[in-house]
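Box S2. Input/output pair 1.
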Amino acid sequence: MGGELIGLVAVILGMGVPLGALYTYYRVRKLRSEERLAAIARGVDIPMEPEYRLLPGLVHDPARRSRLRTQKSAFE
């Protein structure tokens, strides 16, 4: 019984975690789009963003990445 349960949990987590990440990424993009469309409808000037990001939350600009590395954390 223990081996089957471990295998079942491994399969569920192995498939569930990536699906959850994809769904979360989809929802965040949808909410950002809705927010931008609402701002445009109100006439607010919004800055352009790159259309795609490799991974959300990561810094892909090398100059910004180096600035972030040199800044001290508030917890240090």
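Box S3. Input/output pair 2.
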Amino acid sequence: MSVEVAEKTGSAPARRTRAGRELIYRHPLFIRLSHWLTVLCIAILLMSGLQIFNAHASLYWGNTGNEGDPAIFSIFAEEQLEGPPIGWLRIGSTTINTTGWLGVFNDYDGFPSGRAFPYWITLPKSQNLAEGRRWHFFFAWLFVLNGLAYLLYGMVARHFKRDILPTRTDFKRVGRVILDHLTFKRARGEEAKRYNVIQKLTYIVVIFVLLPMMIITGLTMSPGMDAAAPWLPELFGGRQSARTFHFISASLIVLFVIIHVAKVFITGVLNEMRSMITGWFAVEPNWPAERYVIYPLITFAILLALSRGMVVGPGYLDALVLLGVAIFSTIVGSVAAWLVNRSAAKAKERAAREKGTKP
């Protein structure tokens, strides 16, 4: 999730793509390696963490959390005298029927399961707490070491001060940046070469608040760590409170990842992926941005109308298919918008050359 813009100096002409877009070296090798290792660690930690959570799918406040104690959050299955069980999500005194999503669903063997989270998002897929803990602890330490290396690099290379810390000018543009995000406007020209203020503030919260919170609360749940540092559980109001904070931090990080991936698709998945693999990012010219919103929406509406009335299967499958249609529409619509904008730009260049002026 880390980005570093390494600006090239000198009198050499800017490197460009075949289409004439300016190329900048956006991600140094260390940042790219750290990014992909972070992706791997977060994926394994999420899946193994949900496996661990399934062993006791309730969250409490304080030091104890036993069966019968009042939970502030829980996912459970309720057996029925007649008919299949019902899955429930309870937050405080509010309950939501989540059958087919959480609590009750068809397991990998085809039989109904009463686990909180479905098998396809846990590691391993069968209920195995010991195996899940082994995966979780190994990648947790790998995640910590990677994070420490990133922090050290960020300070030594002045990455945080140069690229992450907002300036006064950034804060003056908060309103405009929020509007651009709400209207899915893509950063172009000089704006695409650096973070906007919302990105900077988000990275600060994730890097310096959420990730340390998740690591410290994870350590707090370790009996050995509590014996060595008895003040840790007291810091969060008890071991069960630390577990609740751990779950909330992880959920917010997952939300950040979802938004991050969505923005990658909106801003151009091929260009963003290339920059995180090779380091080189193509700066989009100042083309009209409206097409990048309208074309995906039109594509999504057409596909939705064509699939109207189709039933795929269980509720969660329908949701996954809908998500797939949305992602596919975004890709197709963005490509179509890029082709139209590129064609219009070339037509403008030809007209300008015929008149003997610059476009």
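Caption for Box S3: The first strand starts at residue 23 and ends at 25. The chain has three domains: 1-28+157-284, 58-116, 287-359.
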